[in-house]
Amino acid sequence: MTTDSHLIKFSGLWAAPKRYFKKELLPLLADLRLAIVLLLAIALFSIAGTVIEQGQSLEFYQSNYPEHPALFGFLTWKVLLTAGLDHVYRTWWYLALLILFGSSLTACTFVRQLPALRWFTRNTSKFYTQSRQFNKFALGAEFIGERLDRAIPLLENRRYRIWREGDTFYARKGIIGRIGPIVVHVSMMLILIGGVVGAMTGFIAQEIVPSGGTFMVKNIVDAGPWAAPQFPKDWAVKVNRFWIDYLPTGEIDQFYSDLSVLDNDGKEVDRKTIHVNEPLKHKGVTMYQADWSISAVQVKLNKSPIMQFPMAKLDAIGGRIWGTWIPLKPDLSDGVSLVARDLQGLLLIYDTDGKLISTVRKGMAVEVKGITLAIADIIGSTGLQIKADPGVPIVYLGFGLLMISTLMSYVSHSQIWGLQKDGKFYIGGNTNRAQVAFEREFLEILDQIDGRSQSGTIVTTELTKVCER
User: Does the chain have fewer CB atoms within 10 Å around its N or its C terminus?
Assistant: First the structure.
């Protein structure tokens, strides 16, 4: 008795939360208004994540979002970092919105969509056996005489699937239109799952590598908490060559990087020349051509060997300008500055007082302070954005299903019932969309059943209105 009482008590305790979940929580999650609010919130924060630069340094946000004056009167770098707006798509509250919206879609699917589909599929065994049941149809007709056997072949010719039981039948077509909304929900859930997987396991890295250099992906600027397994560990990348194509006007047409993927033994396992919108993909990691820079200049002084000097970007001057200092004396007491703005080969030469004294091109030489200065080469650097997002295939699958399900949802689900009773034939039907097309089809069926408006036909008021139109 004691054991039984404990079991009864436990069952009672379990029944309360189960009843609350079924009667209160599940209908709330399935509420369309909640789904709309969540969708708007996700859209709003997604816009914020697009407008606000993501994954930048603290100095960047302090410079672009100062406290005085604050953007819009409140948005400062402190507010931005505290709220997580510097990494919107990885914040707990954004992921919580995605999960809650996915729960809402799931609840709606099981509470509304699947029961509705089961109801429509069970209609195959529900026949109308009373004439009064046909009074509810906006499209319906009543014929005097035997017409059931004439109606069924007409419906079959119009691709209706028909179930008959004695003197009554049920016909339908376009059930795929009822499945479409369910597939829409499934596709949206896949997109949400893909987004969460990408946020938790993906990473973004940036590398600036000189032409001829080799690197491993290490400069991670943004990564999910479970992204470590995605980091490349057993392969490196060599920049065989980086170059820029220019237009006749001097503007950049396109910049290219010839990349080789090397295994731990230095053997090339993959190779591709990338440019903007044409990345290299290897083992789930994608390398995009994103930027460029000038890393060094190679010079000869008189008959010296070729010497390479690094060039740095001159941020204080503004624009994309790089410069370096070339010593002309062994004790470094004198020298000149070389300044370049692109890889076309022209360099400006300044003395220690900042005065322009000459210009020189790659492959040429110039006399500077009694020394012949020759430019052997200008070394460019490629700027690569490196990303891994395991959720992308799931998102693509979701979008593919979404496109298919959208087309499915446009298919009309049309239903027609018929009854032969007491020397009369009753017929009625409805559809969930394309009402005008269904009305036209229904009238054509009536005309064919009746042999075109014989005197024994009695048409319902609603159908008469359709005919008058």
Answer: N
Which residue spans within 202-251 are E strands per DSSP? 203-210, 214-215, 220-223, 235-246
For domain 126-174+412-468, the CATH class is alpha beta
CA angle 395, 397, 279 (to 5 degrees): 65
Q: Cα–Cα distance between 410 and 341 in angstroms, integer?
A: 57
- Nearest-angstrom CA–CA distance, 188 and 184: 6
Q: Residue 388: left if φ>0, alpha if ψ -120 to 50, beta else—which one? A: beta
Locus of tokens 């499209």 = 139
pLDDT in tens, 17-41: 666 556 667 777 878 888 889 989 9
- pLDDT the model gives residue 459: 44
Distance CA 76, CA 104 (A): 34
User: Which residues have C-beta within 8 Å of that of residue 274, sequence separation ≥ 6?
Assistant: 256, 257, 259, 280, 287, 288, 289
Lookup: tokens for 259: 């990349």
pLDDT means per 10 residues in the chain (469 residues)?
50 54 71 87 89 82 85 84 86 88 85 70 71 90 90 93 91 86 87 89 91 91 86 93 88 92 93 93 93 92 92 80 91 89 89 90 90 92 93 92 89 92 93 90 91 46 37
Q: Which two tokens stand for residue 368?
A: 């500077």
